[in-house]
Amino acid sequence: MIANSVTRWSRRIGLAAAMAAAAVPSWAATDAQGGGGGGLPQLDATTYPTQIFWLIVSFILLYVIMSKVAIPRISDVLEERQERIEDDIETADRLRGEAEAVKAEYEKAVADARSEAHALVRKAMDEIAASHATAEAEAAKKTAETTKAAEARIAEQRTEALESLKSVASEAAAEATVKLTGIKVSDAKVGKAVEAAMQGGA
Amino acid sequence: MASPVEQFQIKTIGPELHVAGMDISFTNSALFMILATFVVGVFLTQSMSGRHLVPTRIQSLAELSYEFIANMVRENVGPEGRPYFPFIFSLFMFILVGNLLGMIPYSYTFTSQIIVTFAMAITIFVAITIVALIKHGFHFFTFFFPSGAPVYMAPLLIPIEILSYLSRPVSLSVRLFANMMAGHTMMKVFGGFVVALGVFGVAPLLVLVALTGFEILVAVLQAYVFTILTCIYLYDAIHLH
């Protein structure tokens, strides 16, 4: 890198000097009057003290301005900006978290409402079914009762009829026996015989 | 017609000043050094005076140059380079503005003065050597013998290493000085062609335009090179290879 640049500048100086010589044949004369012994003004050592002095003065001045004012000011602004950006990112993160929480809450509320509605519907259906069942059972019970009562009455009447039939038969049998045989048979015997006959006939 | 190197002439401005037998008169070179300091100072302080959260154009230029050098120091020197940052930033801005001010017609380029560049380079060289000596003591001298090299190579390697170390301020200063001087000489020569050729001067004028753009590039590049080499030398001083 160093060698490279050295060859580069020496080539450039050579080129420049050649061109200078071609273009301005009289430059040696003008140079002699102000060049401090000919050659490059940069090689005039009498100018060195003033240049070094003013270099030191201006560079120290610049260093003080830079380190006391400019650099703290720039780094302050940069830090401030960095902080601000971090703050903003933090706020954005927090807000996003909040939004997510709200969203979750909303979703939960929707789900709750849905399940509540579901439960209500189910409850109503259950109630309807229950009342339906009770009504049905009551109706069945009433029917059964009526049936039973009717059956009871039928049985009663039947027994009654049978009873009266028996007495009528016994009387008729006793009368018939007396007329046919002239033998008076006791009521008990007749009753027994009629019962036996009815049992066998039935 | 003026000589192409006449532009490098040091001219006294105002009364001559002599202190302890030395001539420290204010000159055109001194004027532009002070001017560079002033321009850098005003640029970096006034552009930041708004302290805008969203920077204005000029503020973002100042921030850009700050971060450019901050990154350069961080990458080339490491975290130990932090205390030297103000110096390196000042150095870069001083050379950069010095070079760029020199691109303004009729101005003076103090970086085309070998004594100026050499004074800066030798100061950096001495300061960096002192930093290395304080940090590493006598261990610093192992710097001149690359670790891992066979011992019998020492008589050859050590003089080469010492020579290359000592040539650092020379190469550092000559590179900047020669680039600036050669560029400005060339521009003056082409300027001379433009005047001498009359109507046909359009051709060298076009070259001159291109050359001006090129010289602005060189002005920035050389400030960068000077600064980054300072960073690399500082890295060597702190880490010893």
TrEMBL record, chain A:
GO terms for cellular component: endomembrane system; plasma membrane; proton-transporting ATP synthase complex. It is a single-pass membrane protein. Keywords: ATP synthesis, Cell membrane, CF(0), Coiled coil, Hydrogen ion transport, Ion transport, Membrane, Signal, Transmembrane, Transmembrane helix, Transport. Residues 1-28 form the signal peptide. GO terms for molecular function: proton-transporting ATP synthase activity, rotational mechanism; proton-transporting ATPase activity, rotational mechanism. InterPro entries: ATP_synth_b/b'su_bac/chlpt (IPR002146), ATP_synthase_B_chain (IPR050059). The keyword Transmembrane helix applies. The chain crosses the membrane at residues 52-71. It is found in: Cell membrane; Endomembrane system. Residues 75-123 form a coiled coil. Pfam families: ATP-synt_B. The keyword Transmembrane helix applies. F-type ATPases have 2 components, F(1) - the catalytic core - and F(0) - the membrane proton channel. F(1) has five subunits: alpha(3), beta(3), gamma(1), delta(1), epsilon(1). F(0) has three main subunits: a(1), b(2) and c(10-14). The alpha and beta chains form an alternating ring which encloses part of the gamma chain. F(1) is attached to F(0) by a central stalk formed by the gamma and epsilon chains, while a peripheral stalk is formed by the delta and b chains. Belongs to the ATPase B chain family. Component of the F(0) channel, it forms part of the peripheral stalk, linking F(1) to F(0). The b'-subunit is a diverged and duplicated form of b found in plants and photosynthetic bacteria. F(1)F(0) ATP synthase produces ATP from ADP in the presence of a proton or sodium gradient. F-type ATPases consist of two structural domains, F(1) containing the extramembraneous catalytic core and F(0) containing the membrane proton channel, linked together by a central stalk and a peripheral stalk. During catalysis, ATP synthesis in the catalytic domain of F(1) is coupled via a rotary mechanism of the central stalk subunits to proton translocation. This is ATP synthase subunit b. It comes from Thalassobaculum litoreum DSM 18839.
Automatic annotation (TrEMBL), chain B:
The keyword Ion transport applies. GO terms for molecular function: proton-transporting ATP synthase activity, rotational mechanism. The keyword Endoplasmic reticulum does not apply. InterPro entries: ATP_synth_F0_asu, ATP_synth_F0_asu_AS, ATP_synth_F0_asu_bact/mt, F0_ATP_A_sf. Coiled coil: none annotated. It is a multi-pass membrane protein. GO terms for cellular component: plasma membrane; proton-transporting ATP synthase complex. The chain crosses the membrane at residues 30-48, 84-102, 114-134, 140-166, 187-210, 216-235. Belongs to the ATPase A chain family. This is ATP synthase subunit a. It comes from Thalassobaculum litoreum DSM 18839.
